[in-house]
Amino acid sequence: MAQLFPFSVYRYNPAKTDPAKVLTQPYDKISPEMQARYAAASPYNLIAVEKGLIRSDDSATNNIYTRAAQALNDWIAADVLVRDSAPAFYAYFQDYEVPGLTERRVRKGLIALGRVVDYSDGVVFRHEQTLSGPKADRLELLRHTRAHTGQLFMLYDDPSRGVDGILERSATGPATMKLLDEYDVVHSIWRITQSEEIAAIQGALADKKLVIADGHHRYETALAYRNEQRAAHGNDDSDAPYEKVMMTLVNSHSEGLTILPTHRVVSGLAKFDLPAFRQRLSEYFEIRDVPLTGDSSLRASAALGQLVNAGSSGRAIGLYAGGDKLSLLELKLGANLASALPDATPSQRELDVVLLHSLILGKGLGITAEAVRQEQNIRYEREAAASMDAVSAGRAQACFLLNPVRVEQVMRMALADEVLPQKSTDFYPKMLSGVTIYRLE
Q1: Half-sphere exposure of 324 (CA within 13 A, CB side)
Q2: pTM of the entire structure?
Q3: Partner of 304 at 20 to 30 A CA spacing, among 44, 121, 258, 274?
Q4: Mean pLDDT of the chain
Q5: What is the DSSP pairing of strand 325-331 with strand 258-260?
Q6: Taking 70 as the threshold, does the pLDDT of residue 54 lie above it?
Q7: Is the N-terminal amide bond of 429 cis, ω within 30° of 0?
Q8: Residue 266 to residues 30, 74, 269, 356, 440: CA-CA distances in angstroms?
Q9: Sheet (strand 325-331) strand order
Q10: Which phi and psi angles does 381 have, rounded to 5°?
Q11: How far is CA 252 from CA 221, 393, 396, in A?
Q12: CA 311 – CA 329 distance, rounded (Å)
């Protein structure tokens, strides 16, 4: 069962600093340019903890991790970070415009502590594989700071939307914190302190399975740290701080959920023979060329519209190799995917991104799975216009445009202990780091 706990968070003190100048995007989304901008915004910006700066005098005892811990301690001592007086849950709302559309949505989440459990316990499920490098980095940071600053993004299934109702009622008064980020997303939190509401939330979510939407590396870091502490202190204190991790839980039936596609841009192939490539694809795909007109934005919008309104199979990938046309690769009706993709599960064969990586990139272009992992001939791009512009400008040989994965596909595959290919999901917007901080005290 999912065990959730209210907690006394640390938050930035609005009397000392502007939250908009100190919170950051998740650590793995921070580019060097963003890092520099954050550092210049405020001496208290969380970037000093999340990423730090490598210096020439770094040593085993003086490095980015020790400086991160010192910054956190200094900010607490100076009341830049203050701890709430009583445990609480928090409603976390994000009001945003969907990229490429004029529609605004509000994603509604619950910030809580969740018990750290092994995947084998059947409570927390992942939908993607993790890499050793990011986990080693986050573990070393956690060892030094003993703090979780970023939100794990967890999905749960509740068609009745009972917890959503409590969150909505809690959000009718003045927000505890409200800010606008660099992507014009409005982030707001409200404290939930009434014991009956806390109990109702705990009861409603007790039987739920939790699927990690974002934060796989951080969850597995929390697991590794818990195991280290158990080995050091014994395994008999279920209420120890390291047995819990901070997370934001969102109902998979929420109208505010958005998953964006991540397009693929291909370059550096020794030989790219477009006619021969199209011929190889014809075994599995009907190829239909559609004209594109207008500026970059209009062409990209038209291309994505063609994908949404794909042909009879409902499975289509866009190929753009320059010029004024998009090639729609529509999966043929009756295509024998079991034979073509013997190593994929039936659920994985339902994903366009699997067709792209296995049939198109692998069999069509000879880009191996290892090359994909190393990003040797491929890079990932959220914006369709930027993907197509790279081809038009000669920086890439082709790009492949995708429809987004559906949230029900993510839930179904995760709960079946299956994983999606790398960069299959892009949950938008990201949850800011530093909205709340859990100190393992």
Answers
A1: 4
A2: 0.91
A3: 274
A4: 93
A5: unpaired
A6: no
A7: yes
A8: 23, 46, 8, 12, 44
A9: 285-291, 325-331, 316-320, 398-401, 263-266, 378-381
A10: -145, 130
A11: 24, 40, 36
A12: 10
> From residue 215, how far is each of 29, 305, 313, 430 by CA, in Å?
11, 31, 34, 11
Question: Cα–Cα distance between 49 and 140 in angstroms, integer?
Answer: 12
| Amino acid letter, 348 | Q
**d(Cα 32, Cα 39) in Å, to the nearest integer?**
11
Beta bridge partners of 152: 247
Residue 431 corresponds to which tokens in the numbers above?
Answer: 């949850």
Please name the amino acid found at residue 162. Answer: G
DSSP string of 124-174, one letter each residue:
EE-SS---HHHHHHHHHHHHHH-EE-S-EEEEE--TT-HHHHHHHHHTTS-
Polymer length in residues for the chain: 441
User: Helix, strand, or coil here: 334?
Assistant: coil
Cα–Cα distance, 24 to 182 (Å, whole number): 9
**DSSP codes of every residue in 275-293:** HHHHHHHTTTEEEEEEE--
347 in Cβ contact with 353 (< 8 Å): no
Instruction: List the chain domain ranges.
Output: 4-258+428-433, 262-403
- Give the residue among 366, 340, 365, 371 at the shortest CA–CA distance from 354: 340
Q: Tokens standing for 91? A: 């409603």
DSSP labels for 201-232? HHHHHTT--EEEEE-HHHHHHHHHHHHHHHHH
Q: In this structure, what are the phi and psi dihedrals at residue 59, rounded to the nearest 5 degrees?
A: -145, -175
- Tell me the DSSP string of 286-346: EEEEEE--SSHHHHHHHHHHHHHT--TTS-EEEEE-STTEEEEEEEPTT--HHHH-TTS-H
Q: What is the mean pLDDT of residues 420-439?
A: 93
What does the block give as tokens for 378? Answer: 């491929």
Tokens found for residue 158 = 């509740």
Beta strand 81-83 with 285-291 is: unpaired
User: What confidence category does residue 100 fall into, taking pLDDT thresholds of 50, 70 and 90?
Assistant: confident
pLDDT tens-digit map of 159-210: 999 999 999 999 999 999 999 999 999 999 999 999 999 999 999 999 999 9
Residue with tokens 């021969």: 276
